[in-house]
Design a protein that fits this description.
The chain is mostly helical. It has helices at about 15-25, 35-50, 75-90, 100-110, 120-135, 150-160, 175-180, 195-200, 205-235, 245, 250-265, 270-275, 285-290, 290-310, 340-370, 390-410, 430-460, 470-480, 490-505, and strands at about 5-10, 30, 90-95, 135, 140, 165-170, 170-175, 320-325, 330. A hairpin with a 5-residue loop joins β8 and β9. α14 (about 290-310) runs antiparallel to α15. The longest helix is centred in the middle third of the chain and has 31 residues, at about 205-235.
Length: about 500
């Protein structure tokens, strides 16, 4: 398992997915490199010069969106920036999870220090101070269309810098102003362009993507272990793992998954017990085609990680300040705030998750059904089937989760609703894609937990035979938290315990 960093220096270089997860879900020391502070000050000087002169530049001395033709006089430039934060804080719905908001704060700070946004270093210092103190803005989950940045969510985040809005602090939801006062922090007075710079970014989408990839990679690892357990828990053939089969296909994810399953199952006594004279010619797809399905999902997750890692080094503000080595500067308007690269990647992650979960549920169904007379398991793995229902309804739960995953796997990025009087006429809906990806990840984790719980019980029916050493280690980790099934009991706490084991990377 990849270790998480304990300190981070924002110096303009891309962040890692692991760094985002570390800040989102813990307390990490974060500072700004001196060179980054110098870049920010140089870019700020460009903005100040524009503010002091008559040349019209979008977002500095003009209105926003379809109001960009309206010129704003110099004495109202600060008010303009405060107004954009207040007016754009139009979000609705349940608040985003704290880990997601903390990831947004980190990504916003990292983008601003790259020196193209023209904000003062003091603004980034304040964001980092809030992260360090554990002050998390309350950000409604609905409001971003994934272009012109994640405007509404980031506006709610920015309100807190002004001493407005609400925060979560020390476990409770509170008004911002008293919390800042208690920490000795004064509200920030925004200067020219700073409000726009705080809002014009893909930081919600990127935060969703980084945390989704981090979690999916852990779940994929657990799903691979669960697949190995299923192969022996179902007394399936190991023949479809033969490396020659996978070399003939050339797909890298498939080859890697097959190799890992062979490694996990090496030394299995269970497979040896049915290697000879087994009348079953071929197993169901859910057992025979695991490398093909998990391999494809693995490749999709890797592609998603690559796209998201690019974004973790990005500047997604507009307009952008560019400095040259000769001391010159230029400010350019573009569309880096458009979330389409992330939206497509996030849609792909949900599809990948859907297939990992779908084939997992099929294995659970297969072993619980009792169809295979060559596997010494009872229906639903109950000790006394009929009097007891065993894990019957655990499969129903897995089916319900998979059905929901299938429903939300439909791509969000192909839908478009124009905004801002048609000036913003093609939006990515990347935030929708990202929030659905978070939901899909949570559902998938529970599906894999159900498979692990089920196959751990199937192993009890294979004893005294044992599987490969690493598979048995995973089985032991499950048994440390969940005892074997005897009399019927609620499976819900057992599913939750195994799901937490997956989330923490405790399976090995």
């Amino acid at each position: 398992m990849t270790s998480l960093p304990s300190t981070i220096t924002l110096d303009g270089r891309p962040l890692s997915v692991e760094a985002v997860a570390a800040v989102a879900r813990g307390r990490v020391s974060i500072d700004i490199a001196p060179a980054a502070r110098d870049r920010m000050r140089a870019a700020r000087a460009v903005i100040d010069d524009i503010a002091d002169h008559d040349r019209a530049v979008y977002g500095i001395n003009t209105g926003f969106g379809s109001l960009s033709k309206v010129r704003i006089p110099p004495e109202q430039l600060a008010t303009l920036q405060t107004n954009i934060v207040r007016s754009h804080a139009a979000g609705v719905g349940a608040p985003l999870d704290s880990d997601l908001v903390r990831a947004m704060m980190l990504l916003l700070a990292a983008s601003l220090v790259r020196g193209h946004s023209g904000v003062r270093p003091e603004l980034v210092d304040r964001i980092l101070a809030l992260l360090d103190a554990g002050v998390t803005p309350v950000v409604p989950s609905r409001g971003s269309v994934g272009a012109s940045g994640d405007l509404a969510p980031l506006a709610h985040l920015a309100l807190v810098l002004l001493g407005e809005g609400e925060v979560t602090f020390e476990g409770t939801r509170r008004e911002t102003a008293p919390v800042l006062a208690g920490l000795g922090l004064e509200p920030i007075a925004l200067a020219a362009k700073e409000g726009l710079a705080l809002l014009n970014g893909t930081h919600l989408m990127a935060a969703c993507g980084a945390l989704a990839v981090f979690d999916l990679e852990r779940i994929l690892r657990a799903a691979t272990i669960a697949s190995a357990m299923s192969l022996d828990g179902c007394r399936a053939s190991h023949g479809p793992l033969d490396p020659r089969i996978h070399a003939a296909r050339c797909q890298p994810g498939q080859i890697a998954v097959a190799a890992e399953l062979r490694r996990l199952l090496a030394g299995s006594e269970i497979v040896e017990a049915h290697r000879e004279d087994d009348p079953r010619v071929q197993d169901p797809y859910c057992l025979r085609a695991i490398p093909q399905v998990l391999g494809a999902a693995s490749d999709a997750i890797a592609n998603g990680r690559r796209t998201i890692e690019y974004e973790l080094g990005a500047v997604t503000d507009n307009p952008l300040v560019f400095l040259d080595d000769a001391g010159g500067s230029e400010i350019l308007s573009g569309g880096n705030f458009h979330g389409m690269p992330l939206a497509i990647a996030l849609d792909g992650l949900r599809v990948a998750a859907c297939h990992i979960g779908g084939i997992s549920e099929r294995r659970v169904y297969w072993v619980l059904s009792g169809h295979d007379v060559h596997n010494p398991v009872t229906p639903y793995l109950a000790e006394d089937p009929g009097l007891q229902s065993g894990l019957m309804i655990a499969q129903y739960t897995a089916a319900a989760c998979v059905s929901e995953m299938q429903t939300i796997a439909n791509p969000a990025s192909v839908a478009n609703i124009p905004t801002s009087a048609g000036i913003e006429d093609y939006n990515s809906m990347g935030a929708t894609a990202g929030l659905l990806a978070r939901r899909s990840v949570d559902l998938l984790r529970d599906v894999i937990a159900i498979e692990l719980l089920t196959m751990a019980q199937a192993f009890e029916h294979q004893r005294p035979l044992r599987s490969g050493p690493d598979v048995e280690t995973a089985h032991a980790a499950i048994r440390e938290r969940v005892p074997p099934l005897g009399d019927d009991r609620s499976p819900a706490p057992d599913i939750a315990a195994v799901s937490e084991l997956i989330a923490t990377g405790g399976l090995g």
